[in-house]
Amino acid sequence: xxxxDSMGPAPTWPAGGGPMAQAARGTTRVTVLATGxxxxxxxxxxxxxxxxxxxxxxxxxxxxxxxxxxxxxISGEQVVNIGSQDMDDAIWLRLAKRLGRVVKSPxxxxxxITHGTDTLEETSYFLNLVTRTSKAxxxxxxxxxxxxxxxxxxxxxxxxxxTAVSPGAQGRGVVTVLNDQIDYARNVSKLHTTGVQTFxxxxxxxxxxxxxxxxxxxxxxxxxxxxxxxxxxxxxxxLPRVDVIYAHAGMNPDLIDxxxxxxxxxxxxxxxxxxxxTQPALDRVAAAAKAGVxxxxxxxxxxxxxxxxxxxxxxxxxxxxxxxxxPAKSRVLLKLALTKTTDPARIQKMFDEY
Length: 354
Known about the structure:
- It is a single chain.
- Strand 12 (about 265-270), helix 7 (about 280-290) and strand 13 (about 295-300) form a beta-alpha-beta unit.
- The radius of gyration is 21 Å and the shape is globular.
- Helix 3 (about 90-105) crosses helix 4 and helix 4 (about 120-130) packs parallel to helix 9.
- With about 350 residues, it is α/β, with parallel strands linked by helices.
- The chain has helices spanning about 60-65, 70, 90-105, 120-130, 155-165, 255-260, 280-290, 315, 325-335, 345-354, and strands at about 30-35, 75-80, 110-115, 135-140, 175-180, 180-185, 190, 200, 210, 215, 240-245, 265-270, 295-300, 320.
- The chain has ten helices and 14 strands.
- It has two domains: about 20-230, L-asparaginase, N-terminal domain (Rossmann fold, 3-Layer(aba) Sandwich), CATH 3.40.50; about 240-354, Rossmann fold (3-Layer(aba) Sandwich).
């Protein structure tokens, strides 16, 4: 990578890269869509804790990883260059529409997307729901900026490309590749603030593993995505507002009221335990549901399933149970569901199927 002297050069792998770099030159055509994030970040001073996301562009990222051209024919474009904490609906729609065009191109066999880790699990699930393709779509990021000691971005990029071109990659929807692990977009969560082992699928386990470019796949996904999805961003220029509200001891319903007054068409409750909340809060979401706001009960816990009608009578109150989906994923699915219907029964079916 090439950058200003104040930031210093980003480290690269030793010449020759990983073991697959010595194989025959790859012919699979992989398009890289870059969005910024830590993987493109740089520290103001070597060894410093702080850094600026999106300091390098897609050409820098590709050129920093020796051996990529042995895996595939790589091309790239910069969609945005931001920290993923600044991802919003407008960028999601822009990225999804661009991805939709790229996967339809006869000159692209697979796609790799670079992304910040803060909202990677949300963007990946969104793209998983709206991208109708059987081609491989892989998302990678890093927990350390490109200029850090032992930066993990190069390895994740290498393994990401290897995953995208591997036999068996097609038809699995969007997957993430970080720290030698492959996860399905629906299942993966960021579970640690800074550790490179942060991305895990707590309920179902990984989709596979990729070690120095050698890929091993596990079970296929069993939920709707890709070609089977009913969702599409064509013609959409905005998405309905859905807010996440965090439940806690002594919770009052004021924030529920505020969200609705400010225009929320849906609410996701990050409930305690099995999607529970105080009685005043439950009374208020029941009233909201009766008034036409779709309310999903999820959980603030990192794993487990929010079962329908377990502790809360969802049928009576008109609520939706999130199942395995955490609050962030529930918000993504609810935003898309609301582009189709406001019927909580139909939306519950979507949560069961997706």
